[in-house]
Amino acid sequence: MSTTGTAGTVKERADLALNDDFLRKAVRFTTERLRNGKKKASEDHGNWDDWRERGRQIRLHTIAHLDYYLNIFTENARANGVHVHFADTAADAVKVALDIAERKQAKTIVKSKSMVTEELHLNHHLEKIGIEAIETDLGEYIIQLAGETPSHIIIPAIHKNRYQIADLLSADAGETLAPDTTVLAGFVRKKLREKFLEADIGMTGCNFAIAETGSMVLFENEGNARMVTTVPKTQITLMGMERIIPSWTDLEVMATLLPRSATGQKLTVYMSGITGPRRSEDGDGPEEMHIIIVDNGRSLQLGDPEFQELLNCIRCGACLNACPVYRHIGGHAYGGTYSGPIGAVLTPSLQKNVGEWDDIANASSLCGACYEACPVKIPLHDMLVYLRRRKVEAGHGNKIESIGMKGFSAVMGGSKRFRTILNLGKLGQKLVVRNGEIRTKLGPLKGWNTYRVTPSIPKKTFRDSWGTIEEEIRNGLQEMDPAVRSRMEAAVKNRDKGGHGHG
Amino acid sequence: MAESQTHQQWLDELEAASRSKQEKFMNSIASKLGRPRVMEAPKHPFRGAPDFWNNFEWSQEERVQHFTENFKSAGGHVARLADMEAAKQFIADKANEMSAKYIVRQNQAELEALGLEAALPDASISVWNSDPAQSWKARAAEADFGVVMADYAAAYTGSVTVLSSKDKGRSVSLLPTVLIVIIPLERLKTRLGEILPDFDRAGRASLPAGIHFISGPSRSADIENDLTIGVHGPGIVYSLIVG
């Protein structure tokens, strides 16, 4: 169900997105709102850069000592009664999860939001062995009904309007539901209540894992992650191997940065720290708890000076909201599990196959807004440049761009050639100029002209005028006011005599 | 019994596999980082919040004021009450006003002393985990009101903290339609940083299974960014600051 359509290039997928008027408006509206919320929350909080720096330091420290912290996390979680598993690849992680589900003879699994399970396409694998996996986050439930994947890390159904949602939920309910938010959410609450109570397994992701006590921490607003970790008898948590922080004391910094950056909240409605399965005398909580620690390409970043900081990411989505490209094309155009600037770097980095994702790094304007927004100061815009460089080094450069660039350098390398080309252009453009604009979508101008208009080359170019301008400047200098000239000469004389200067 | 033994055997096998993989996993991390394994706790100079923040503290009245503002702006309700007698009256009045039939409360001495049973003779009031034969998750799921004591509260984020135990169910603050949290005034702190380090000090073995920070009613903005209250957790939350 949750297969990601990665057919075609980012450009082709973006064409789909750009032509979908509602999507573009919805994405812009939502990201604008989240971005303003973040801006206000970080300004209200004050000293934001000090907090960012502190967040960065904690993440840097943890990743630099990841073997130590992950190891003590494992030991502590085990001492709490958790069954810990390690998965090098997506296939390993899926195998462990399916083994547990089969062993438990599970019929249904209720899930709270987890980007790692999206990365593994776990729902798809569970369905293949006949297990119903139900996404319980409202937005995730909606897109699961639609058979789609999340288009935003925080608001997954950002691309659907209430009428589309009402249609999906009406089909689910078997009756017509009004396109009213309260009615729709009310239906989902009732429907999922039953699912929580009957599910065999609850499955979650993990925002942070606390090494020193072996605890896992979840941030959420709806309460579904609490449901999933409280009601079913078995809990399975999938966590990226880099989700670690040393202590609860460090959690204050993450709890300050994450909600403010994601939604502009001072804290999400629920922040839950779970330390092991239920104690034997407890009245609720899972009897059996598994944590699957997933590598799946993450460790490739370790020891890489250009990309190690990617592992500092706390998955807040602030870079998506800040990115002018994301705001135009939306999440699906990126074609991977993670979208926006973080996705543009993370997807090729996790996959090791830069070639296949070679165009994703181009879905960025390198403006640096992502870095400014990042609560742990990951230099995403630099990474995008590194990625493009590696791509070219690996021979995956854009052929037409390279040829174009070679042609450009050939033309610009000689002024005579440039003049000839310009004059040719003046003649040639007569075929395509209409009212002083070029709107043709032929040849090299196709990409640009699809959404913009190229101005025609003026009758008199800047280059044509250059001789005149140069002459005016020279003449102008000669005609300097004699009074000014004498003052300047006096100043120079004074300086030579060692008079007081400005140091 | 035989089946549970095989299940235990299966778990043991998983653990053996996990332990052997653990070494490879950690060694591989160290080798990618280009150094030997780190086996001793490294120096962690930037632990917790920036220094200037750790000295920040509001007065009691400021804490009450900011908690109230923050909790209300997240869609919750706050009442400042003189004593537990006033809290009992408040809960009884709300239960009558909203015709609450089923109430579930934590098994705590402070709540026992409220005497809600006498104040609300028509309501069915159950006490969490007081009878092992009961299905407690079902009792909490059907409840109109859940009543709990806060272990901590933080004014700066407008949050209450509840810890689980045999007598304190995680479901009681999650499944009922309305949640009522009583916050004794002395448990209301300024910052999260006055609460979280307690869990480090307590240490792994002393931590409860569930530590939950709650900052208002359950909410979602997943449908067209339109705020919806009460999606999965309680849609109405009262914080009663007592003292």
TrEMBL record, chain A:
<keyword id="KW-0813">Transport</keyword>
<feature type="domain" description="4Fe-4S ferredoxin-type">
    <location>
        <begin position="303"/>
        <end position="334"/>
    </location>
</feature>
<dbReference type="InterPro" id="IPR037171">
    <property type="entry name" value="NagB/RpiA_transferase-like"/>
</dbReference>
<dbReference type="Pfam" id="PF02589">
    <property type="entry name" value="LUD_dom"/>
</dbReference>
<dbReference type="InterPro" id="IPR017896">
    <property type="entry name" value="4Fe4S_Fe-S-bd"/>
</dbReference>
<dbReference type="Pfam" id="PF13183">
    <property type="entry name" value="Fer4_8"/>
</dbReference>
<dbReference type="InterPro" id="IPR024185">
    <property type="entry name" value="FTHF_cligase-like_sf"/>
</dbReference>
<dbReference type="InterPro" id="IPR004452">
    <property type="entry name" value="LutB/LldF"/>
</dbReference>
<keyword id="KW-0479">Metal-binding</keyword>
<keyword id="KW-0408">Iron</keyword>
<protein>
    <submittedName>
        <fullName>LutB/LldF family L-lactate oxidation iron-sulfur protein</fullName>
    </submittedName>
</protein>
<keyword id="KW-0004">4Fe-4S</keyword>
<keyword id="KW-0411">Iron-sulfur</keyword>
<keyword id="KW-0677">Repeat</keyword>
<dbReference type="InterPro" id="IPR009051">
    <property type="entry name" value="Helical_ferredxn"/>
</dbReference>
<dbReference type="InterPro" id="IPR017900">
    <property type="entry name" value="4Fe4S_Fe_S_CS"/>
</dbReference>
<keyword id="KW-0249">Electron transport</keyword>
<dbReference type="InterPro" id="IPR003741">
    <property type="entry name" value="LUD_dom"/>
</dbReference>
UniProtKB/TrEMBL annotation, chain B:
<dbReference type="InterPro" id="IPR037171">
    <property type="entry name" value="NagB/RpiA_transferase-like"/>
</dbReference>
<dbReference type="Pfam" id="PF02589">
    <property type="entry name" value="LUD_dom"/>
</dbReference>
<protein>
    <submittedName>
        <fullName>Lactate utilization protein C</fullName>
    </submittedName>
</protein>
<feature type="domain" description="LUD">
    <location>
        <begin position="65"/>
        <end position="242"/>
    </location>
</feature>
<dbReference type="InterPro" id="IPR024185">
    <property type="entry name" value="FTHF_cligase-like_sf"/>
</dbReference>
<dbReference type="InterPro" id="IPR003741">
    <property type="entry name" value="LUD_dom"/>
</dbReference>
